Amino acid sequence: MDLRRTMLFIPGNNPAMLQNGGVFGADSVILDLEDAVAPNEKDAARQLIGNALRTCDYGMSEKVVRINPLDTYGVQDIKAIVPCGPAALLVPKVECPEDIKSAAECIAAVESAGSQVKIVALLETPKGIAEAYQIATADTRLVALALGAEDYTAALGAKRTKEGREIYAARMAVINAAAAAGIQSIDTPFTDANDEEGLLKDTAFAKEVGFKGKLSINPRQIDAIHSVFNPTDSDIAWAQKVLAAIRKAKAEGSGVASLNGKMVDLPVVNRAKTMLHLAYRLGMVEEVAEA
Amino acid sequence: MAKIEKTGQAGTLESSDIMITVVPDKSGIQIELESIVMPQYGDAIRATIEKIMKEQQIEGIRIKAIDKGALDCTIRARVLTALDRAGAEIREVLA
Amino acid sequence: MKNQLGREIPEAIAKNRLLYAGAFGTEPTMRRYAPQVKRILPGQSKLVDNIEDVFKKIPVKSGMTLSFHHHLRNGDGVLNMVLDTAARLGIKDLKIAASSIFPVHAPLIEHIKNGVVTELDTNYMSGVVAQAISHGILAKPVTMRTHGGRARAIECGQLKIDVAFVAAPAADDYGNINGTQGLAACGSLGYAIPDAEYAEHVVAITDHLEEYPLTPVSIEQTRVDYVVKVDSIGDPKGIVSGTTKITKDPVGLRIAENAAKTIEAAGLIRDGFSFQTGAGGASLAAAYFVRQMMEKKGVTGSFALGGITGYMVEMLESGLFKKLLDVQGFDLEAGRSIAKNPNHMEISANFYASAFNSGSAVNRLDAVILGATEIDTDFNVNVVTGSDGVIMGGSGGHSDAAAGAKVTIIVSNLLRGRLPIIVDHVLTATTPGETVDVVVTERGIAVNPLRPELKEQLLQAGLPVREIHELKELAEKMAGVPKQIETGDRVVAVVEYRDGTVIDTVRQVKD
Fold it and tell me: ipTM more than 0.90?
């Protein structure tokens, strides 16, 4: 599974930021054609992002482009950007499965043979949240649902707070829909770039309730978010014990493994495996032994 | 060979950007370049702009470029946007 | 002739001087210089009405060397005031030994054209004077030194000063001086101390006369011959350095963070840690990350050194460092602190950085973070000339701190604008590669091959270590290979290493 602990927005009409987007170590960079670009500069930003996709080195970061909604400039965006080889498009303001299906059709029409541009759906309206599962299962290109809480709370008429009680239900809806569809869920950004403590708290909560990553609006947030999503040493030790218990049970020909007197069932095994694969990807363990 | 019909402009004077203004001219390709890296990259920037004009088969144009240290991919993007805004038909050419 | 770094030094320059022979390759052979001993009788006054009268009393003559300190930076009014007087009195052929030259010193250009000034000796210059020098306005090459090198040259009698004109933010009528009182308070007067100690004549120029005896005293009455009261010695707005804010640029912050992690990986974040960093945005940001690490580990450092900013004062006051050793204050907070905090100590340029004494403070540094305009693949650093070949700075304390510190870190963007910062050969070698340990960029960290154990430590810590050649190629892949700039043949400045040997020369730029 692809790592998307952090997805970092980079303003699309800013050459200095575009050329440096890869240096911050984010799992994904989101080159932004939507909110960061004025309507009369969309054409310029498309050219800039297109050329950046072809020539700039984004290192290990996945190259994602946030297009405009399909009913504004999104179709033009897809035509210009997809041939330049992004890994994925972030489609904003998704409200129904048809939004994803139309985006997928537009992509297929201009995509070169052999490539498969992925889609991440940004849910940022009450309707989008309500339709989360239908959206999550709309197309095979879809790899993640992301929550955009600023527009969402504005539409609710709720005050956006750092504690985030007002978005609890939306968060859970996104996480559950994504999990049910077997794709990732990505949390809304923490918008106060100067409050590192608040960011850590918000991210820890996101991880606790099941998000796989977090959108970010400032490069300074990347390391902090990763520090939360990365497995801890005790996480790794636990996961290794689980897999060892499974191996032991298999060797003994027993169908049931147990750890500390408790039965180890399949979801636990899967969680342990996922954690060890993540630890391996991050260079925290030398190898992942098969269960 | 094609010509542009009107003036087109793209880019900014921010660091790492380049501001391109294209103006219809009688014939040929005239480039006026200002750059903060003129001694090191002046020739390279001109070559990039000329190459794009050739690719896009445009003549009869005056190009004013004020460069603040833009990379080649940025120069390319800004020139193409300026041409597009000046009414040129942009052809898809692999960079 | 080529020096040990392989820099070609023209015969005419080389014949009277020693060439660079390694960072510690040249030993002192001289005795300390001693100016003429003088006396002053009871009842005799040192107060003189104006600068012109001082010129007549000394007397200042054509061909002399006049010295100035740069603590008032771009707000300095004294150098211009003194040279205007010299011009008015028809004095010619002066050598100006100013510890730094700033844009505010633009009138120097007229004085050079008129033959009032025919020689310059400085550690740093920026602005129009530096540009005019690069275009060949002065027949004799400028001598460019390090801060420690200037103190050494004065002490060793290689830079003989006839008259030191000391801009004095506060003075009494008997010549006691400090930098912490008055309208033009600048904090430490560290760079003026060697001048006052070794000049044949010392003149205090002040706009703030205090009752005798002034306390505290930075420069004592025993070395000061005359005191002149003027309306203003400078513009306080120009005294504060323009670069004392932590950068907001995310790339700069990334570099700063990696610089701090380098120090941590080297095992230096421990009790007794000693540290120097510049006042530039990225260097200050590195101090911010170092501070976080110190706080997290509960470490108490020993001292911070060099040019001192309000940020370092905060670290002193919150107990992260026990002492500040301050040769120059960069902002008002530094000035306020040095005036009241006994653990914030004023030190002379000699104490700070001289290579030829019985030990300067740079030798006790664990880590220093420095900038660069260019670095070559041998880790030599240029901080004298810009990308157009024009002089835009100077070593200042760069080479001194690099030579002294256990770990010397250069921080720089891999590309500045479009320009790759890592090159095959720097245009002007200022700080030799053997004294530079690590180069930190946003796309990787290169460790000097002379420090394999340090490289191992950084790799252990999971830092993005790459070869310096790789970083250079990476930059060129992004930006293209830059065309070499062409310079003229004439030498406009001789760059001295801290031990007084010639490390490089600066050639005239082509118009």
Answer: yes
